[in-house]
Amino acid sequence: MSAVYVVLEERDGRVSRASWEALAAGQKLAAQSGGAVTAVVLGATTQALANEAAARGATQVVRVEHPLLAHYTSDGYTLALQQMIQKLAPPQVVFPHTYQVRDFAPALAARLNEVLISDVVAIGDGPVFTRQLLQGRLAGNYRHHGDGPCLISVQAGAFRADEPSSASTQPAIETFTPQIDASQIRTKPGEPFRGTAQTVDLGSAPLIVSVGRGIKEADNLPIVQELATALGAELAASRPICDNGWLPMERQVGSSGQTVSPKLYLAVGISGAIQHLVGMKGSQCIVAINKDPDAPIFEVADYGIVGDLFEVVPALTEAIKAAK
Known about the structure:
By secondary structure, the chain is α/β, with parallel strands linked by helices. It has helices at 17-33, 47-54, 74-88, 99-111, 221-231, 239-243, 274-280, 309-323, and strands at residues 3-7, 10-11, 14-15, 36-43, 60-65, 92-96, 116-124, 128-133, 138-142, 150-154, 172-176, 207-211, 234-237, 264-268, 286-290, 303-306.
């Protein structure tokens, strides 16, 4: 039985949400061949990360450990994963499509003489991997050919982080120790990037109320903020709102902002330009409020309200408050 290997990324001592989405993609890929899912964790000591992976449905966990992996470096991760892949020969390796993966995975693919199929949004039978092109206007389908490992990274929000099921039995955990010399690490790790204290991680928000240019002016934003507060949701926006400075850029959803997949995405006064849709169409339930019945947002919405947001939103807010 062949295994799909999923490389998990650590964030503040825990496995990142994007990694759980990659694990869900790996499980979908493994189901096509009747294979198993092996989670891969890297670091100087990885016991805690391995335990997390074991609790989330991985059939096996590989701990790639070395003192030089205590802090991320492109050289260290590339060398470690190259050696692991060459020794264990997994047929398919899945990564979350993060900044870190984009830093080292192309070099890893080159060392293995393989192509990285990056930013995958769907996996079909075959398997066929779908990527979005031209900011989501087109979709391209790709297959892997050759005897080497198939390397893919999956787009944030494309697969549900809550899809992986708990393992029925305790998975096997093994340790792989790569051969790395300090002279091979050409970069010096620095402090990890951290945003300001006000930075919002919309990707982790279960409920989002997003506002578009239908709000007309910044003075009208409290109407939508009150709805978000009533729902206990994060407030987000389309690009024009952030470009105008009405809300900070950290709250932008879309191709040039954050990609989200909340349980509920309530779009208020958003027409639905493709640049916005690519950032939120993976949401579990999309509700759109727009006065234009032909607005593109209704094509992806599960529920649509055609009406004036200045009438609909206050009424909806009051109904939510009354229901509590």
